[in-house]
Amino acid sequence: MKVLLVEDEELTRDGICMCIPWEKLGISSVVTAEDGEEGLARALEEKPDIIMADVRMPRMDGITMAFEIRKVLKRCRFIFISGYCDKEYLKSAIRLSAVNYIEKPVEPSEVVEALKASILQLEKEKRRDAMEEEYYARLNGLAEEVPSEDQIPQSWTSSMHLADKIEKYIREHFSDPDLSLTLLADHFSLSKQYMCWLYKKEKQETINQFLTRTRLKWAKEYMRRNPQVKIKQVAEKSGFGDCSYFIKIYKKQEQITPADFLNSLRQGAQP
What we know:
Keywords: Cytoplasm, DNA-binding, Phosphoprotein, Transcription, Transcription regulation, Two-component regulatory system
GO cellular component, one term: cytoplasm
Number of strands: 5
Helix content: 55-70%
Domain HTH araC/xylS-type: 164-264
Strand order of the largest sheet: 2-1-3-4-5
Order of helices and strands: EHEHEHEHEHHHHHHHH
Radius of gyration: 26 Å
Subcellular location: Cytoplasm
InterPro entries: CheY-like_superfamily, Homeodomain-like_sf, HptR, HTH_AraC, HTH_AraC-typ_CS, Sig_transdc_resp-reg_receiver
Largest sheet: 5 strands, parallel
Distance between the termini: 71 Å
Number of helices: 12
């Protein structure tokens, strides 16, 4: 992992270099530059993973420099440093997917936390890239044996449970009738094809199967607790939207229609 520090104030630049436990964070190289123009040149030459940059510098400010760097280095992470609370600069930092924005005087602990966040994001991308390579290799019949869990680098473990995260998101949003594979893929920044492959590989069922199962389980419990409810209301609350489709899927899964299930509950509740 390589870091580029662009800071025109020598005292701040040297202080950051000396106070941060770079090696403990897994950072093997720290390159410095004194202004935006030099920072741009060093970035294109060194290709750092993380760039820490002062916002206001002579010759070229940090935001302008970062936009130029982003044209070439698509995945590097930016951490901006400034003594100015300028909302416009903050908006630009957000557009650049900046991990953090640190105000001067710089606190080493804040720098460490920002670096950790950047490293975590980069490691997640590496894991996804590796799994996508495996996916496309398998499509082309080129894949070798999938590595066992203990052969996967420790730095990848933070993103090992992406399928679990997909499940968690579905459990929290299943009632949204607009929830779809496209929405999920966009949310997790994955291609839809790769996301479906990954999920089925780890969970042995498709995402749509899990979504339908989750909605039906909730619908059944909701009817059990509210036997006077209307079927259309159940369909809407469970995310099916289309009442006819809900009835069809429920009957296929439970071998009984929602209406018959509700009737059985109502009869059982009678004295």
